[in-house]
Design brief:
This protein is an alpha/beta fold. The protein folds into two domains: 69 residues, no CATH class; 154 residues, Zincin-like, CATH 3.30.2010. Helices cover 34% and strands 25% of the residues. The strands form three sheets. It has a four-stranded mixed sheet with strand order 1-3-2-11. It starts with a strand and ends in a 15-residue tail after the last strand. Bound molecules: zinc ion.
Length: 245
Amino acid sequence: MEIERHVKRVKRFTLSIKPDGRILLTVPYYATKKEEEEFLKKSQKWLEEKYSKVVDRTLFYDAIDGSMIYILGNQYLIRIISSDKNKVEIVDSILNIYTKDLDHDYTLGVLNKYLDKLRKDTYTEVMNKYLPLFHESIERLRIRRLKASYGICYPKRREIVLSSTLIHKPIDFIESVVAHEINHLKHPGHQKDFYDSLYQVLPDYKIRAKHLTNDIDWCNIVLYFRVEWKSQLAVKPASRLIRHD
Ligand SMILES: [Zn+2]
């Protein structure tokens, strides 16, 4: 495992595993080599344990430079760029977040705004594709963070709710969820007539919907892990301020 080492004017050693699998070590400016070795030795077990967890689960997003995000089933590397205009742009496999303020919450807001629009556009487009195929119409489409499902249908008030996390999934899957919910407008239950009419429009429904059972937590946010340890030599006389490394 390769560790990126950064010496900083901080009081604590910090070891972080980023969502993309990078390991960052922050070394207090005044810390000794021995302290550093001791910290790393103490953190070894922790590091090995957490590393596999983080690397296995890059299926979420946060406004962290160098982290990964899934959009419509494709993986992108997030880059955060200071700019005089807020903008999000995808170039090949990189998602550039241009932000007026590098503050984490502000930058996350810029990304969320982009994703909100993308959700609305994408879900509306898929709805407009499948409603006529089922000879149906709806009064309202809502997008919400759903905990236990990807979609909900309210046949009586002709309303469909789609999960905000769907945007991270492949379009084939999104279509299967949309078709499923539209089909509920006619067939509220999951009986044979429900599936007969669903398979008529989407014969490969089962293949598309396989994500439904095996990875409901696909998009759960998992932040990176970090461990801290305070340097004993944190407060030092001013003479140690001169350092040439
Ligand atoms: Zn259903």
